Amino acid sequence: MIPTVHPEVQKTVEEYLAPVAGVRGALVVAADGLPLCGYELDDERVEHWAALGATMMGVARRAAERAEGGGIRTLVVDMHDGRIVLAEAGSDSVLVVIAAADAELDPAGPELAALAQQLVGILGAGAPGAEGDGPS
User: Fold this and answer.
1) Integer Cα distance of 93 and 79 in angstroms
2) Angle, nearest 10°, between helix axes 110-123 and 7-17?
3) Mean pLDDT by 10 residues, the chain (136 residues)
4) Are 40 and 25 a contacting pair, CB within 8 Å?
5) Are 74 and 94 in contact (CB under 8 A)?
6) Cα 7 to chain center, whole Å?
7) Class of residue 35 by CB neighbours under 10 A (exposed 0-12, middle 13-18, buried 19+)
């Protein structure tokens, strides 16, 4: 496993996601691709998802700016057998959750929003211009 860069983030992610059936893995990654924690992922997968998560959220943030839509709440990639959910997780950080199709995880639900808000509390305020526009 990767060395935990941020133990409080690791603990928070574990507490929220451990009881959620169908979560295949998760991580919190800084905008520069540095993983702050990894949950249920080996080193190789953490590196892979850290790069993808930072890139995907960066592109989504730029698209939202161009669309004058404010900050990103969540970005969901629906797959045949699962989904990838990305959510703002503090200043320039993103939560990436990889889940099975039947996971008990609602991308727009209160549980994910609560986790994202906890992470914002740990890592700092949301993205610039996203005041009051956090996960919902």
Assistant:
1) 24
2) 170
3) 72 94 94 91 90 91 88 88 91 91 88 90 61 38
4) yes
5) no
6) 16
7) buried
